[in-house]
Amino acid sequence: MNKYVKTTCPYCGVGCGIEAGVDEAGHALNIRGDKTHPANFGRLCSKGSALGDTVELKGRLLHPKVYGQQSNWTEALDLVANSFRAAIAKHGADAVAIYASGQLLTEDYYVANKLMKGFIGSANIDTNSRLCMSSSVSGHKRAFGADTVPGCYEDFALAEMIVLIGSNAAWCHPVIFQQIRAAKTANPQLKIVVIDPRKTGSCDIADLHLPIASGSDAWLFNGLLQYLQRHNAIDQRYIEAHTENFAAALKAAASSHSTEQVAEICRLPVEDLRIFYRWFSGHRNVISLYSQGINQSSSGTDKVNSIINCHLATGRIGKPGMGPFSLTGQPNAMGGREVGGLANQLAAHMDFSNPADIDRVARFWGSRAIANKPGLPAVELFDAIYDGKVKAVWIMGTNPAVSLPDADKVRQALRQCPFVVVSDCIADTDTTKLAHVLLPAQGWSEKDGTVTNSERRISRQRSLFSPAGDAKPDWWIITQVARRLGFERAFPYQRPVEIFREHAALSGFENDSRHGLRDFDISAFAGISAPDYDKLQPTQWPVNQANPHGKARMFEDGHFFTVSGKAQFVAITPRQPVNSPNKAYPLVLNTGRQRDQWHTMTRTALAARLNQHKPEVFVDVHPLDAERYGLLPDSLAWLESIWGSMIARVHVTPDQQPGSLFVPMHWSEQFASRGRMGALVNPVIDPLSRQPESKHTPVRITPYQAAWHGFILSRHELTFNDVEYWVKSKGESYYRYELAGETLPPNWPDWARAKLGNSGQSPCWQEYHDSGLGHYRAARIIDNRLESVLVISPRHSLPERNWLAGLFGRDSLEPSDRKALLTGMPPQDLPDCGNIICSCFNVGEKTIRSAIQEQGLKTVRDIGNCLKAGTNCGSCLSEIKALL
Ligand code: SF4
Q1: Ligand 1 center to residue 179 CA distance, Å?
Q2: Cα–Cα distance between 658 and 643 in angstroms, integer?
Q3: Strand pairing class (618-621; 645-652)
Q4: Which protein residues touch ligand 1 with a CB less than 6 Å away?
Q5: Mean pLDDT of 415-440
Q6: What DSSP string runs through 149-181?
Q7: Cα separation of 657 and 587, whole Å?
Q8: How far apart are CA 32 and CA 16, in angstroms?
Q9: What backbone phi and psi angles, to 5 degrees, belong to 191?
Q10: What are phi and psi of 475, to 5 degrees?
Q11: Please, what's the b/e burial string for 111-125 (b: 16 or more CB within 10 A of its CB; e: otherwise)?
């Protein structure tokens, strides 16, 4: 490698520091964790470790496209500006909108927000962060008067008890989970409690798992508040000195239910609930770490405040080793919040509810047309597009046709919208397909700017390569459109550092005791030089005169950002989810991330090793439900809600509660014919945060009655427009397609030749066909090298794919390999290793199981020593432990 550049991982909100070894000539990347970065101290998870495999030109959007034709920047930008101008002139500023993303850098986000709110004059800019943590924002603002995360990662090592609520950190924030695991190893007395309807990988280190009924969290924390009061565990001095409204919160909690009733509502053993309450009450250093299981709810804001109430009541906030802690999903969800990327925010943590804030931002920007009221949040924004109220929308770096609830309606909304612009680094996504104008944005390895992680830490993301094709930074693209709209003077930017300086200056503008103190203040960076910006070290805000080197914890002095300076208890009356299961849709659908994929897979699916762990869309089903609904393990099932449907592979597991299902959120039309979970999810939202209830949709499940099942491994990409069910994943030197259909083709050999190709280089076919039983196997071999293999059966149980995939690594097939292809039994030197557990070293479940049995391995360390599994990124440790 020529040089190592320090940058930041573009995936989750942990915000890990990376050292990227760059070979400029070959675009090769060697990725290692940055040992000096305080977010991860050198650790990376499987996704971060595989970043080097995701940087490729294939699939990139390289040039602007206008109405499907390659174009140039001048034409494309002119069209965007003219179309926006025309829509505004005819229908008003609220007829246009931007839908942005937690993938944008802070500088991109700042410019987008400034253009929309400050100069176009509408607050119709929202972001996919709405789907992720807007309930935390609302909860923070109600309790603290500002959207402030009080603590920092350092606190995990100082805690006596960590409660994970609605958070499978083991899969979704793996490096934080590793830090908690390390804290537990160093201090076995550290109590870990997981509150989650599912038994997830995070339960691996838990002393107590509370498999709470979906949606009942606020009852549980109201019950805790009562318990703390009854057992004299509240901090009366803190409550009196630093908070308000305790009596009302307590009254609401007390009027709810007794511990026994809470246990009943939450469907928990009362003794387990008492243990949790006892532990919470008995430990001073408690961290409540919560995530999408809390936020993605029609009462998400109340759930957040029910947790914060318990911390305020015990004074456990603002000190080392304690506090409520929201884990953000995206790499720059926090940066988006700082610049006002949500439709109900102004920039720099200012708010539409305060006319002085509107005036302040307008004066700072020199804007005469600033929006004076909140705009449309995500779900309502796409409803407005569907209803024809928004005539032009600009989508930046996100894929709402997959990720938003009621995603089929979103797709229809975009089809109907008169003008859709998408800026993205990827050419083909479910959303780019619907765009009139495509603008090529720079990708992670090309972009330059800053991001902020879950603990308020601002880090630099640095450019590693020169841009692919005509790709440009998002801030540049927005600036060019702003200038064309006549706002040249307000958008003079030439470099990201200029935007960062302005952003920092705004954060400090009239931010004092005379005008009112705001939490977000990085004014110390307002004059940062370009070289210092280049060298900027990871720093936690605020960074100002009082805290020139940043600040680890907020609220240490008990001062909050409310009018009175005191934190606010919020009286919580718990509510059940809006849509309950019913006769037609008797099950609850939960959705979430899986270990090795990111969002709609546009980047992680490029890394072969990230596709091995869960290569297919799946649905977790409890054994009782599997029996009740006639679902066999590994068969296929239809899932249907009022809003839409999908097909997924059945994974029967006792880790799922009876009556509820779980599906991953990642699959789009690019990777599966019917795998978009967003199509099913109800579009119900929290009345305060406007965040959708993505974890509670009534659904039904039925077996998918396939006439045939099969799979293909092929060196070349294939298309299956005529097959009802297909799922694609990329392997090391092949593509894998899982297939099923309701109608049989007239003749399998003809179908195979049509699909796999039968021309050129004299392919040799090996075939086995039992037309009576419906079995067909074929291998296409060229120059004694495997080109493709196809297996068809009337049953869903098919040969393992891993050893077959191994044959693609052979330069020349042995006779035993050819025999294996025909019989469907692995050759001796390519044993069937089962599902891949350790993606870093490609170690499968069967290999681990036999090593445990045959060699008497007893610990995770034994397995690491023997097979290397789990010794690199550690993301698979929970699963290895489960096998033990
Ligand atoms: Fe990236 Fe993994 Fe770190 Fe998240 S935990 S920032 S995905 S390396």
Answers
A1: 12
A2: 23
A3: parallel
A4: 9, 11-12, 14-16, 40, 44-45, 47-48, 173-175
A5: 97
A6: ----GGGGGG-SEEEEES--HHHHSHHHHHHHH
A7: 10
A8: 10
A9: -90, 130
A10: -60, -35
A11: bbbbbbbbbbbbbbb
Q: For residue 29, give both structure tokens.
A: 């990347």
Cβ within 8 Å of residue 523, ≥6 positions away: 504, 505, 507, 508, 509, 511, 543, 544, 545
pLDDT at 56: 86
**Residues 792/709, Cβ–Cβ less than 8 Å:** yes
State the closest ligand 1 atom to the C-alpha of 11, by its place in the atom list counted from 1.
Answer: 7
Look at residues 762, 796, 800 and name the one whose alpha carbon lies nearest to residue 781. Answer: 762
Q: Do residues 727 and 171 lie in contact, with contact meaning Cβ atoms separated by under 8 Å?
A: no
Backbone angles phi, psi at 135, to 5 degrees: -65, -35
321 CA distance to ligand 1 centroid (A)?
Answer: 22
**Whole-angstrom Cα distance, residue 528 to residue 87?**
39
Q: Please give the biggest Cα pair distance in the chain.
A: 86
Tell me: pLDDT of 586 over 70: yes
Q: Among 7, 175, 177, 604, which is best to mutate for testing ligand 1, by the most ligand atoms less than 8 A from CB?
A: 175
The pLDDT of residue 36 is 97
pLDDT tens digits along 631-672: 999 999 999 999 999 999 999 999 999 999 999 999 999 999
Closest residue by Cα to atom 4, ligand 1, is 12
**How many residues comprise the chain?**
884
Alpha-helical regions (H) of 448-528: 474-484, 496-508
Q: Which of 70-84, 307-321, 856-870 has the lowest mean pLDDT?
A: 856-870
- Per-residue burial over 787-803, b = 16 or more CB atoms within 10 Å of its CB, e = otherwise: bbbbbbbeebebbbbbb
Q: How far from chain centre, in Å, is Cα 186? A: 30
Q: How far apart are CA 665 and CA 692, in angstroms?
A: 14
Looking from the CA of residue 49, the nearest atom of ligand 1 is 8
- CA atoms of 163 and 68, how far apart (whole Å): 50
Residue nearest to atom 3 of ligand 1 (CA): 16
Report CA(175)–ligand 1 centroid distance (Å).
6
Q: Is 110 helix (H, G, I), strand (E, B) or coil?
A: helix
pLDDT at 26 (0 to 100)? 60
**What single letter denotes the amino acid at residue 554?**
M
Closest CA to 567 of 306, 246, 289: 246
| For residue 241, pLDDT beyond 70 | yes
Cα gap 626→628, rounded to integer Å: 6
Do the beta carbons of residue 357 and residue 346 sit within 8 Å? yes
Q: Please provide the distance, in angstroms rounded to a whole number, between the alpha carbons at the two ends of the chain.
A: 39
CA distances to 252, 306, 570, 623 from 145, in Å:
21, 16, 12, 46
- CA of 233: how far to CAs of 195, 239, 256, 280, in Å? 21, 12, 19, 9
How far is ligand 1, taken at its centre, from the CA of residue 639, in Å? 31
Separation CA 547–CA 526 (nearest Å): 14
pTM for the whole thing? 0.95
- The dihedral region occupied by 824, where left means phi > 0, alpha psi between -120 and 50, and beta the remainder, is left
Strands (E), 617-730: 618-621, 636-640, 645-652, 660-664, 697-703, 708-714, 725-730
Give the full edge-to-edge strand order of the sheet including 3-8.
Answer: 3-8, 17-23, 28-33
- DSSP H helices, 44-105, are 46-49, 73-91
Determine how β-strand 191-195 pairs with β-strand 161-165: parallel
Question: Are the C-beta atoms of 459 and 535 separated by less than 8 Å?
Answer: no
Q: What is the pLDDT of residues 9-68, one digit of tens each?
A: 999 999 999 999 988 676 678 999 999 999 999 999 999 999 999 988 889 999 999 999
**Poorest-confidence range of 78-87, 110-119, 327-336, 644-653?**
327-336
Residue 256: the pLDDT is 62
